[in-house]
Structures are given as C-alpha cells and as structure tokens.
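sanity check both lines:
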Amino acid sequence: MMDWADSGWSWWWMLPMMTLMVMLVVAVIWTLVTLTRPSNTSSPPSGRTSEDLLNERFARGEIDVAEYRERSDALHGAAKRT
C-alpha cells in the first residue's frame, strides 16, 4: 500500500509549511521589537526645554548671535500662538 510519504508529495508540502513558519517567527520578532522600542517624542531628552537647548548651543558657540535671536524669537512667538 502506498501513502503520502512514499509518493514524494510530503516534500512539496514541507517547503510551504517551513516558509510559513519562518514568516511567522519573523512577524513575531518584528512585533516584539516594534512594541518594546521607545516611542519618538517631540520633547527634548531629560526634561530640558527647547530654550535650554538653544542656550547651550549658543554657549558652545555652535550658533551666532543673529541665529540665536532669530531662533529665540521663533520659540517665543510659537509659544505665544499656542
């Protein structure tokens, strides 16, 4: 008597099943990584405000007086509008 294993069909069913298992494992890992990754927030790290960061950049010499004033005005203008 001949069954599925003897006919060679078992190998053809094994490939799609293995592919589905790999896809399932990848999906589970991707979901876990996505859920455990910290979300992007618009607030600066460690509780510093945008003005604190601007002051630090000016103090380090990364920006000049004109750019400091322009950005400071933009920050204060944006705060007044909201």
Notes: Helices lie at 4-7, 9-36, 50-60, 65-81.
